[in-house]
Amino acid sequence: MARRIIGIDPGLTRCGVGIIDVAAGRKLRFVHVSVIQTHADQELSERLRIIGDGLEAVLDEFAPGAMALERVFAEQRNLNTVMGVAQISGIALREAALRDISTQLHTPSEVKAAVTGYGRAEKAQVGEMVRRLLGLKEAPKPADAADALALAICAAWQTPVSSARSASRLHGSAAAERVAAPTKAQEAWLAAERAAKSRGRRLG
Amino acid sequence: MARRIIGIDPGLTRCGVGIIDVAAGRKLRFVHVSVIQTHADQELSERLRIIGDGLEAVLDEFAPGAMALERVFAEQRNLNTVMGVAQISGIALREAALRDISTQLHTPSEVKAAVTGYGRAEKAQVGEMVRRLLGLKEAPKPADAADALALAICAAWQTPVSSARSASRLHGSAAAERVAAPTKAQEAWLAAERAAKSRGRRLG
Questions:
Q1: What is the count of structural domains for chain B?
Q2: Quick check: B48 and A93 CB within 8 A?
Q3: Which residues in A lie closer than 8 A to residue B89 (C-beta atoms)?
Q4: Is the Cβ–Cβ distance between B77 and B53 less than 8 Å?
Q5: CATH number where A51 lies
Q6: pTM to 2 decimals?
Q7: Cβ separation of B45 and A12 shorter than 8 Å?
Q8: Residue A10's pLDDT is what?
Q9: Interface confidence: ipTM more than 0.90
């Protein structure tokens, strides 16, 4: 039975939403991607209403069992952006609890390390790896769409890999040829995870 | 016809909710106060669900026409707290838009200046002024409850006062005797408002 995971990349102007299924052997299947958009000249409450309604519609249609969201650190970027991200994540987390969807938070570097093997990868590299890992013809655009799918992939691989054998299955055969060696990616991901943990769960 | 205003002081552990009616002549009437509580050992999504459901219940019961929320500046305090505040404010603002409730955001110093005449007033002073302005027997407790009512009062007085005569009506007769002179309070409030505006609408 496949696990269905929704990744949400929250932003007031563009909120990326990506859904994947994870089957036995951690095989990934693309299900859905979309971007909910609002405009800076709309009232903040109205922007949050549009985004909340959009998220509810996707949750109703695809009924995921798990939700992955960006873990926000206020240091990491523009404060204005951070507040919008936190406001949207509050709405998304509440909707998850209302539907018994489990939730997990990942830092941007965890997500990048999970899909590219490198915690500081460029946007284009993340998009290209998402394309390969999900067997898509083109990288999802805009970047917010690719980031939402990358979050879902990161969450799919969250369970620690216990052996080299399962690690080698990690990226799937189609992607393996041009991917950084799975063990390397896995190491980078674990290092990012440890770093995030040692910083503590400072921010929700 | 009285305007009904809900003030929300968002916090994950204690979320204060206060409701007042504002009649002609800016006369204030206490309607409701409560605190929604969650525990640090609960999942973040579950805490946000409890708070969101609690806010919805109050909005359904009292049907306010306006909502006042704290405007968050990430500099102003513990980052962990700021993220929780932003997550709850996102949920509250969305619910406001879903019900056609107008929203306004006020900084803590605006609120303190509005009820005490001094932007850096202590918690106890805010509680005492809320008690007097609403004609309550005791100051609402905990401080989150008093702060929610103070937010609603600040929003009630948001419309600039154009004459000394209306300014003298501002605090009502019962409260006037031990209150800083209304013009002084009004000046402090306008100064706080100007300061907030000159900082720009950096954060939602």
A1: 1
A2: yes
A3: 87, 90
A4: no
A5: 3.30.420.10
A6: 0.78
A7: no
A8: 95
A9: no
